[in-house]
Amino acid sequence: MATVPLVSDEEASAEVLAVFDDIRQVRGTEYVNNFWRALANDPALLRATWERLKQVMGPGALDPLTKEMIYVAVSTANSCEYCVHSHTTAAKAKGMSPEQHGELLAVIGMAMQTNGIATGLQVPVDDVFKASP
Amino acid sequence: MATVPLVSDEEASAEVLAVFDDIRQVRGTEYVNNFWRALANDPALLRATWERLKQVMGPGALDPLTKEMIYVAVSTANSCEYCVHSHTTAAKAKGMSPEQHGELLAVIGMAMQTNGIATGLQVPVDDVFKASP
Amino acid sequence: MATVPLVSDEEASAEVLAVFDDIRQVRGTEYVNNFWRALANDPALLRATWERLKQVMGPGALDPLTKEMIYVAVSTANSCEYCVHSHTTAAKAKGMSPEQHGELLAVIGMAMQTNGIATGLQVPVDDVFKASP
Amino acid sequence: MATVPLVSDEEASAEVLAVFDDIRQVRGTEYVNNFWRALANDPALLRATWERLKQVMGPGALDPLTKEMIYVAVSTANSCEYCVHSHTTAAKAKGMSPEQHGELLAVIGMAMQTNGIATGLQVPVDDVFKASP
Amino acid sequence: MATVPLVSDEEASAEVLAVFDDIRQVRGTEYVNNFWRALANDPALLRATWERLKQVMGPGALDPLTKEMIYVAVSTANSCEYCVHSHTTAAKAKGMSPEQHGELLAVIGMAMQTNGIATGLQVPVDDVFKASP
Amino acid sequence: MATVPLVSDEEASAEVLAVFDDIRQVRGTEYVNNFWRALANDPALLRATWERLKQVMGPGALDPLTKEMIYVAVSTANSCEYCVHSHTTAAKAKGMSPEQHGELLAVIGMAMQTNGIATGLQVPVDDVFKASP
Known about the structure:
Chain A has 133 residues and is mainly alpha-helical. Chain A has helices at residues 14-27, 34-39, 43-57, 64-77, 81-93, 98-121.
């Protein structure tokens, strides 16, 4: 159903298999999900995307669960069905409770609502909100 | 520049002033920002939006700073200039460090990127991502 | 500030002026707004857009004010600053009252909110909502 | 297929059932659609969303059918598959004729088109469109 | 599954059949895809959309393949599942190679990423980017 | 006006200056635009974004001008004011003629229009559009 074939392990080149193996090791699972198998049609794009994702989503000033919830929020606003599913699953795996999931959805809904109202009203940005140069 | 006039304290009805006063008290500041002054043209919409925002953004299973960062993420994906400014300011006021701000932007950028790639590839959702009925 | 120059009456070709004149006549005003002056850099696109707009936005099974409010709703969801301003002005000119404007914004906000929640939940479409083939 | 289980009547708490019952009564049907069954995983969010929807979508300065069409317009611009289906169904139930549906789609298409062109041209907002402060 | 029935050749009016026939002739195939069969519920909208599409997507200052890739890019950013599928198919039919498809996706992903970062940072537009008036 | 200060050459760290210098050399100009100066608040994000952009936008299976036009298309659909300005300027610098610019806008407008109509109709994807697995 994708616009490209999904690449199985058998069809994968050595370059692609190396990325698949790194995904498996970092995540501690044998399962490589469809996003990477579709992306594998372009090995360079596969590698660049995975390397960057690994770096961005690791621990830092924000914890991995917070990052996953931000990812879900963006994916929801962009109506990316695949991304909502995969990153909601990831957030649950990283400990998101049903209560946290409910609040995540409530904040997304609230933000969408006031995004619409503020844009519809074309409210001018307050001077106090502008960062000093 | 808004599509409606901004309502000053002098022009505000008692109903509107009551909401403005609650905003001032909850936030501990005299300043009422333009969003509420624009919304005040419809007192019922003003009250409903403020009451809901107060409830959703308060402490719960997620802390207020995490909620503000999720709010910024949604507002960014929706290109709401006003909301990005006001909620980035709010996140800073709630303690978001420059490092956290940088990681927030990195996650937003990463999510936008893979949203585009997953949608462009029309990757089918893996069965393992679907919640049991 | 546009990505192209705005075309004044003096700079306009005969082909462009003919469209400007039709805009003036249909709208009963001398004023030609910036959208058309920017679009005039491509006379064929100017003509095709104006001819189609005139046809779509005229009276039909929906009245012109309802059409303008739908236009504002789409433009808001798409964060088109120019379009929100121009079509809110047009809706007011066609009789939109402050109460109607407030309800329009309330519906936009409600729709945005449930759009976010339904997408975040990935709610499957009920069979009863699907039109018969 | 949702990111949460759908809550059946049998699984519903008393708090959830009370909302389901109100939905049934207000709409005059036994059927409770999937959106509410998914939302029922967070009873507080379920109640707040339903109470607000009931208020916003009822008769007022705009009639219920006009509101539904505005809802469809926003949902379409936001690519919310579920919302397009459910609110198109609701609009038909409130009397939207095939001719009105066709014009709704034509206006949505026209707005999307000029949203893209105006944003691509970055047309500056005319002074005459700005509401007086 | 559409919000309207798909119109078969047998059900089509003479006006609709004339458009279907033109689609067949221009594209050199007997197959009329679902978009046109859904649109056929409003014959005037069907004709206007097809006539405009035929004109816009034909050869000009940009070649047809470049136009198709731009179409895919917009459709991806707007999360239009149908449009991503149909225009990716069209781009392949017009000669898009797997390498070009990969680069198209890489550019879409890059643009989405910096769209998010630039909007999140609210970067002011440089004076040098503004076209002279 | 940004949500962060713009970093001048004087304020820049050695790490940031090294990226600025590479931007200057690759582009053959002394001018470093605001996007990079805002991004410089997070040197790691600055470097990663620039390195990736340089790689993605260089010549390959698609020529640089085609890539810039695709970039403009995505940025327009996402309503990124900054990105539309900067990448339209870049496209002109790479040789986009006024005729090509007009056709780019016409294709964007056409795609937006049919995106809205296809989503509003919820047209099911034709089997013939689905790539073989």
